[in-house]
Structures are given as structure tokens and as C-alpha cells.
Amino acid sequence: MSASLSRPRVGVWLIGARGSVATTVVTGCAAVTAGLHPPTGMVTETPAFTDSGLPALSDLVFGGHDTLDCPLPKRAETLTAGGVLPPGVATAVSAELAIADREIRPGGPTPGDTRSEAELITAFADDLRDFVRRHALERAVVVNVASTEPASQGPGAPLPASALYALAALRAGCPYINFTPSEGMHHPVAAREAGHSGLPYAGRDGKTGQTLLRAVLGPMFAQRALRVRAWSGTNLLGGGDGAALADPAAAAAKNAGKERVLADTLGTVPEGEVHIDDVPALGDWKTAWDHIAFDGFLGTRMILQTTWQGCDSALAAPLVLDLARLTARAHEAGLSGPLGALGFYFKDPVGEGPAGLSEQYEELVRFGQRLRRAGGEGGRGARSVRDTGERETRKRETGERETGGVL
Q1: 3-class state of residue 64 by DSSP
Q2: Which of 5, 21, 170, 369 could share a disulfide with 145, CB 3.0–4.6 Å?
């Protein structure tokens, strides 16, 4: 994105940078910056965050990793044809898409990749540092928006790609956001590093549809003292997520966050499951249906059914922009560790915080007020990513390792 060089610019490094969500993020940021569309869905553009010191949308610079080679302008054309992006927008911001596409580096590991885990982490971290250096960025935030991985195979198994990227972010001195159900910073190796990195991080699994409704309806039943007997659901979705979640292990990782919301808001997990079906014809659109059986006064049995039909990328993109801006500002303000106040955005949030959406929103607004008071010039987090990267380079040169050779 173009921005005045007199203001510090912030990098947004997207894992899965050529996917539907990432393409919609870059396109949407450019369109809103150019005044082509309002920032609908962006909580950080509401009055509650006006004076929180967040980086301007025009000051965001995009790059990322991906194993795909479809250029962003071409990907945006496909999303336009599918009704995800409005007609004409991708053409209007084609220059910005091309600029972002030139900043996308090969991800991994890919089939036949012979690099070790340590080599992959080093390569990914070097890409991040190079991105920060070439654009003279004050800091960069890494956001994982890649397809869902299968659940971890346990101790001794190879590190999943999401954990490699998370470790690379830590090594490069970059705050990290996991918008997917994949392990990322939740992996024990990455979690150990995150604990003493001095960096803020947030996640996991963006709350965009079915679970968003659950976070509203669960507290309603609890507050009205209505006993939920069963809560079942079905998701129909296509695109890359539909294909990835056709794997039962990946679907299990996705459903864990949905169940947690019910457990936290109801105090128990009712009977019922969520089924995820891959329907390629739906493309980037999804339908989520919930069937809730509950008891009222004198045991009267009742039913509530909800149907949610939405475009996953259009629901996710404004949240990704919100999270990148809030996390960058938290880093500038000297905050570190899990950002529990960002639980508003996640199915399975890190740190402590409420589970109901209303309470999560109130905590988010308080967080914005905290950022407003924090200033931005003297805190520990105000150190730039460039400084952190130089320190990490010196550590490697002196042979310091704290994770058994992985970092």
C-alpha cells in the first residue's frame, strides 16, 4: 500500500498469502484506503478506537508466504467471478495487488523439500527480516490465514508448518496471530519460545460465522436459566477450507473451538456434534445450520434453529485487518504475551477472558482505551522489528539455542 514515508509503516505478513482470505484482505485494504468502499465489518474503524493509536490502513505493507504460485491479481479475478469481491474493485486496485504479490515468498515444506526444520525456520525468518529492511518498516505482524492442518500427531512428530512459521515469526521479532485452527503458537515447542520472547501474540481460529452465533446464543440460554439438552450443527462449505476440512483430523481441530465456546458459556457441553461437509460447488460461500433443543419452565421442550449463509473471506478479511492493527499497536506499546483481550475475534482464544461475545466486546473496548493511554514512544515494544532481528542474528552467531536446536 502506498503511504507517506514520514509516518512509520507496518508490515502485515500473511501465511497463505495467495488464498481467498489473504487476497480479500489486500484487496479490501486497498479499496477502503482509496475510498471505493466503506470499512464495513472493521471494529477498529468505529468511534471506540479512534484515538487508540492504531496504524492507518494506508500505512500497511503486505507480503507473505505461500506454496501456491497463482498471482494475486489473477486470484482476485477468480474471487470476483465467484461473487466474493464486487465487480470492478480488483481492477481498480490491481497495482496494489501486484505490489503485494511481489512480496510473496515460497512457503513450505513442499513435497520433496529436503530442508530440515531448522533450515526452514531460518529461511522464513530471513524472508521476514528482508521484508522489514527493504521497506524500512517499524514493525511487522505475522498472520496465519492458511488452510487448516490436521491435528498434531504428538511428541516426536515433525513440527507442523504452522509451528515452523510461528517460530520464524518469533525469531524475526514479529508478533504473531493465528487465525486458523492449526497449532501455530499452541505447539509446545513454539509455546516455550513465545513465553520468553517478549512478543505479543493472539489466536486461535477466527470467529466468523457459526461460532459467532454460538457466542451470542450460549450466554442467552445461561442467563435466562434455560437448560440446553442438545446442540447439533452442520457446515456446508467449498473452496480450500472445504477441501482441507474433508480430512477428519483437520475437521476435529476445527470443531474443538466450536465446542469450547459452548462449554465456556453453558458450563457444560450438551449432546450433539458439528458435521463439516465439503461442497465444492459452494466455492468461498458457506452455510451453517444449528439445531438447539432446550427445556423451559416445567420441562416444556422447545427448539431453536439457526441458519447462517455467508462468504467466509468477506467475513474474515475485516477481522484480519483489525487484528493486525491492534497487535501492531500492542507491540508498539510494549505489551507482550497472549493478548486475551482479543478473544472477541477467536473461537479458541489465548490467555484469560470471557466467552460471551458481549463481554468480549467490552473487554476489547477497554483494551483500545489501554492502548490510547499507553503512548508509543517509550515502551519496550516500541523497539522496531529491525532491532529485534539484529539481536536474534547476534544470538545465532554466538550459538545460543533455547529449544534443542530448532531455533
Answers
A1: strand
A2: 21
